[in-house]
Amino acid sequence: MTDYSAFKVELSNSIAHVQINRPEKINAMNAAFWREIVEIFQWIDETDAVRVVVLSGAGKHFSSGIDLMLLASVASELGKDVGRNARLLRRKILQMQASFNAVDTCRKPVLAAIQGYCLGGAIDLIAACDMRYAAADAQFSIKEIDMGMAADVGTLQRLPRIIGDGILRELAYTGRAVGAEEARQIGLVNRTFDDTPSLLDGVFAIAGEIAAKSPIAVAGTKQMLSYMRDHRIDDGLEYIATWNAAMLQSSDLRVAMAASMSKQKPQFDD
């Protein structure tokens, strides 16, 4: 695996631990972050030995969002021509969107473990994950409204499918902070834990359960769930019929059935 400046990446027991590793900067998302996350998730997607991903932040906080130095750098590139400025800004926004699209479209389930601050761009990031879990001290906020802008890297597009429309509008319009328990109540996180160590233990335990399943079945399940965000039920039924016409021929089905009959734990190939 490559060494990264904004991340630490480890692979153990089929679980890739992707950790934002700028604790001295509250894990703010600098230029390297946006570039490296694409490389990391491309590696994850292409590496069969990885079955599940745990995404976390080093130190006391998950992430404070986009690094203000990066925003200042973009601002310094703007000139006097409105049209060219708009072209530049649009290109930058689409590049950032692509970084989190890489997380969303990854074939492997991505579990976010969140402690401390999860602000602004960090909300965009966790919205691209499959599941979210929080320590009791977690604080969530859609901070873009306080910066005089609309969130533009996925929060307003993905969160409507995760939490209710009314509460999302409240959070997006006000930028107010949401604690871990409220986040659980509104469906932003699946479960809360007392502290960061118990959070990581709990999330890795869930990741371990998923890693023990058939990787073919897990990938197919994620593909179908993602497909159904934008399609009708009849479209989804047609798609899964075509998908499983191929995937039901996998040896994993026979392995799972044999293990069930013998009451043993199945062992699946990568």
UniProtKB/TrEMBL annotation:
Lineage: superkingdom: Bacteria
Gene3D superfamilies for this protein: 2-enoyl-CoA Hydratase, Chain A, domain 1, Lyase 2-enoyl-coa Hydratase, Chain A, domain 2
InterPro entries, per database record: ClpP/crotonase-like_dom_sf, Ech1-like, Enoyl-CoA_hydra/iso, Enoyl-CoA_hydra_C
Molecular function terms from GO: isomerase activity
Keyword Oxidoreductase in annotation: no
Gene Ontology CC, one term: cytoplasm
UniProt pathway: Lipid metabolism; fatty acid beta-oxidation
Keyword Acetylation applies: yes
Pfam families: ECH_1
Single Gene Ontology BP annotation: fatty acid beta-oxidation
Signal peptide bounds: none
Keywords of this entry: Acetylation, Fatty acid metabolism, Isomerase, Lipid metabolism, Peroxisome
Places the protein is found: Peroxisome
Family: Belongs to the enoyl-CoA hydratase/isomerase family.
Name of the protein described by the UniProt record: Crotonase/enoyl-CoA hydratase family protein
